[in-house]
Known about the structure:
Chains A, B: It is an enzyme of class 4 (lyase). Chains A, B: Its cofactor is [4Fe-4S] cluster. Chains A, B: Keywords: 4Fe-4S, Iron, Iron-sulfur, Lyase, Metal-binding, S-adenosyl-L-methionine, Zinc. Chains A, B: InterPro entries: ThiC/Bza_core_dom, ThiC/BzaA/B. Chains A, B: Its EC number is 4.1.99.17. 2 copies of one chain form a homodimer. Chain A is α/β, with parallel strands linked by helices. Chain A folds into 2 domains: 6-365, Alpha-Beta Barrel (TIM Barrel); 368-428, no CATH class. Helix content of chain A is 52%, strand content 9%. Chain A has 18 helices and 10 strands. In chain A, the strands form 2 sheets. An 8-stranded parallel β-barrel of chain A has the order 3-4-5-6-7-8-9-10, surrounded by 6 helices. A two-stranded antiparallel sheet of chain A has the order 1-2. In chain A, β7 (225-228), α11 and β8 (266-270) form a beta-alpha-beta unit. Chain A is globular, with a radius of gyration of 22 Å. Chains A and B meet through α5, α8, α13, α14 and α15 of A and α5, α8, α13, α14 and α15 of B.
Amino acid sequence: xxxxxxxxxxxxxxxxxxxxxxxxxxxxELEAGINAGxxxxxxxxxxxNLEPIMIGQPARVKVNANIGTSPxxxxxxxxKNKIKACVEVGADTIMDLSISGDLxxxxxxxxxxxxxxxxxxxxxxxxxxxxDKDMPISSMDPEMLFKEVEKQAEQGVDYMTLHxxxxxxxxxxxxxxxxxxxxxxxxxxxxxxxLARWMLDNxxxxxxxxxxxxxxxxxxxxxxxxxLGDALRPGGGxxxxxxxxxxxxxxxxxxxxxxxxxxxxxMIEGPGHVRMHQIASNIQIIKQLTYNAPxxxxxxxxxxxxxxxxxxxxxxxxxxxxxxxxDFLCYLTPAEHLALPNVDDVMAGVIASKIAAQAGELxxxxxxxxxxxxxxxxxxxxxxxxGMTKAALDPxxxxxxxxxxxxxxxxxxxxxxxxxxxxxxxxxx
Amino acid sequence: xxxxxxxxxxxxxxxxxxxxxxxxxxxxELEAGINAGxxxxxxxxxxxNLEPIMIGQPARVKVNANIGTSPxxxxxxxxKNKIKACVEVGADTIMDLSISGDLxxxxxxxxxxxxxxxxxxxxxxxxxxxxDKDMPISSMDPEMLFKEVEKQAEQGVDYMTLHxxxxxxxxxxxxxxxxxxxxxxxxxxxxxxxLARWMLDNxxxxxxxxxxxxxxxxxxxxxxxxxLGDALRPGGGxxxxxxxxxxxxxxxxxxxxxxxxxxxxxMIEGPGHVRMHQIASNIQIIKQLTYNAPxxxxxxxxxxxxxxxxxxxxxxxxxxxxxxxxDFLCYLTPAEHLALPNVDDVMAGVIASKIAAQAGELxxxxxxxxxxxxxxxxxxxxxxxxGMTKAALDPxxxxxxxxxxxxxxxxxxxxxxxxxxxxxxxxxx
Lengths: 429, 429
């Protein structure tokens, strides 16, 4: 990989030492991961003041926050505040999923104000040009898509979701309504549904698949990492692991091979709605079919009925996913399925994903995760509130909760009934 | 069990039909579960207007909310509002864990205003009488404990946490500070720490264990279910499954046998802080050692560093716990380890536990859980917002999120980019 992708090589040489220190892995281990394609280094040199990151276990599991406008809720200031919230709460990446307003200007603003990697879904900008004119998506000229990818790569987008793996056959699987074999939820990917509709209406193959080499050429030039979208991810627990999902994963695996040949980094996007007992097998089969490329999941959502609290249903799945090999968690917020997330939702979503990552990495015995717990427990046993605050995944939450009683030795739940104090005091006397 | 416990038999005969309908299990199945001790029916006839419930899979997994005063946060009105919140959000039981104020009066108020089962920890009332006088817990006369249990049974408490299983040896295990073998967090159970201190200071055995027959006699009279407390539950992930926890579980198992002989219903309280990869084994060994008595867990908390968000860390563990056999979830709120929960925390805690239960029961294929998902997905695919609201675990959250855009066909996240609509419209045309 590094020998074929000069832009990546230059970037890696510049940042390898810092990344090695942060990840607790040697430079050689990072290099080997990148070369094998089991790790990617997100970073487009066109992104000013960029701090690249590594994705791919045993590098730390990362958390992405989706932000951006929508037709019914569109306010650039609010999106800027979401970026600030992402900085405060420690998201690793953001994706600009805007679909309303001047998308170029919004994207430029976001790239300029966010110094870690940023991702996009170029299909949205193309979709907007068509849907805003009340034209059918079937009228899309595929040329628009490639131009959009090229433009965004030049703007400094570090990774792009490209739904290259949904085939015409896959679109039929996904849209199949046969009650015996078809899907319960059909196609729930925004970008994927547009491409599916285009293919079905025009009876043509996916242009991103047909002209994949063209994408590779653009992405290689700027070290844009291709996040191979899962247009056919299950949108309900019943659809997990079905023919539509797996047929797409097989195609994605073949695209991973072609990307590696070309020196272009790829990640695989994963489910979606998957019940607990199927998460490990679902993640493992995707990993196998896609040659252990880093996997980037939305959830997985362990149930469909938690609307209003999908960050929790997703944290359960995310934790199980990390334990099964997931490398990168896309957050879900309490607004999912219902509305555009606000600033509070963004914070809740990032924290929930960080909790999922920590739970999963603890189960895997990752050093940085275990060290955090050790620090917390040492402080907790000593009733050392500053120590607990520092060790907590969300120090601000601890400070806020403690505020009314911050000078007390014990907490306001138990007061003098504190169990830790009960035994500590015995030893003191 | 039913032949030995006449109070239970009378109560069961009265409610069996309604419980059978609610649980989707035949009266004979419930009866068999109660007789085997793998199910308990919570209900003390002294509790006015009581609606008893069943605990024990395959009965639905239930959710408990801990409420009650503490020395630093003490307001009866606020506790009453928490009860209303529990009704609104659908908790199955509450526990009054008050440790400050006029405990008898608080308890009577709670019993009168909550019609599903209510639990307590009688040790708290005894502890209060001693600690409020600045006396050491070692001065406790065990007689106080038995009198308190008797009084609360007469008041109508349906189940009581009694830490009968912590032995003098267990207290030593729990308080062991040897860095090679001792615990990281020691003893974190409020009631358990008082009994441990009493035993260690007085060099005597646990009076609740020594005089267990006396407890059985009181509980049999009013069908009080004994919730055998886990005084030695792990308070940090490192302590899970250690000698202290397992030695106590063995004792609890023997007490389960004695209870069954006497016709007294028992549940087992479980961890606590347990990392994901140890949850299934931890739950399974407790189930085995305690002869498949219903297990009632606090969490399990999959990490120690999620302070401020322990309801999420606990939902991950609760879901895995249910999948491994947990019957009854005690909620954790965002306030855990930091402060007394407020009304919002209570609601967040109940919802998180209900999500955990649904995730776990879905993984087990439970009919009622699957039916909810089917209803949600049918409505979601049809963009039927009323149907989604009805099927959601928290309908109020859906209504609140939808309010600003409630007349739109689609939601405010995607607007006209709605993937479901993209394919549905194709079929319409």
